[in-house]
Specification:
Blueprint: H1 2-16, E1 32-33, E2 40-43, E3 50-57, E4 60-67, E5 70-81, E6 84-91, H2 99-102, E7 110-117, E8 120-125, H3 128-136, E9 144-147, E10 150-153, H4 157-167, E11 178-182
Antiparallel strand pairs: 1-5, 2-3, 2-11, 3-4, 4-5, 5-6, 6-7, 7-8, 8-11, 9-10
């Protein structure tokens, strides 16, 4: 019950930001990869926000994303689908002690297509407006629910992978690539 409520609230926060949350992960254990070059702290130019990855398992990372000095913890996994690499992030336990508030939150996965070249990591998130158009035009039948002006993906991992692989190299599906730089 707690996990469901965490996902709803965090999902709504993601929707506000224009991202596309998913109830299910993008991966199965067979799809996970580990790349040691991801470990460390990454920043965008002209931003004090940081992405700090630590290895926590054979093929998993702990991500501390700090925005405007406020940290948040995520579980992160690298997922190889065909020739493409994706980052699946899922919120860690929030630092909130109010049980009634917590039962209203539901954690959700978000996906970014990523490319790593040396000390540069480029990422682009699935575009909400593009997905809305694809659904409205019946160009995709990916499992989803429409809510609060956004879309919550409900498809299982194999269908999510098939969908993302089909559109992974579509710059309309993954616009606005951002660049992070590894801090030494």
């Amino acid at each position: 019950m707690l996990a469901l409520k965490l996902t709803v609230a965090l999902g709504l926060a993601v929707l506000v930001a224009g991202c596309v949350p998913s109830l299910h992960p993008l991966y199965t254990e067979e799809d996970l990869v580990y790349d040691p070059t991801l470990v460390g702290t990454w920043t965008e130019e002209e931003s004090e926000d940081t992405w700090t990855f630590r290895k926590v398992g054979d093929k998993s990372y702990d991500l501390i994303y700090t925005e405007e000095g406020v940290p948040a913890r995520f579980d992160a996994h690298l997922v190889r689908i065909g020739e493409f690499l994706f980052l699946d992030t899922y919120p860690g336990e929030p630092d909130i002690k109010n049980g009634f508030y917590l039962i209203h939150l539901v954690p959700a996965h978000t996906f970014s297509r990523i490319e790593m070249e040396g000390d540069v990591l480029r990422y682009a998130m699935l575009d909400l407006d593009w997905l809305k158009r694809m659904i409205a035009e019946k160009a995709t039948d990916i499992g989803h629910e429409e809510m609060e002006g956004g879309i919550l993906l409900t498809a299982p991992p194999n269908e999510l992978q098939e969908f993302l692989l089909k559109y992974a190299d579509d710059d309309n599906a993954f616009p606005d690539s951002k660049e992070l730089h590894h801090q030494k």
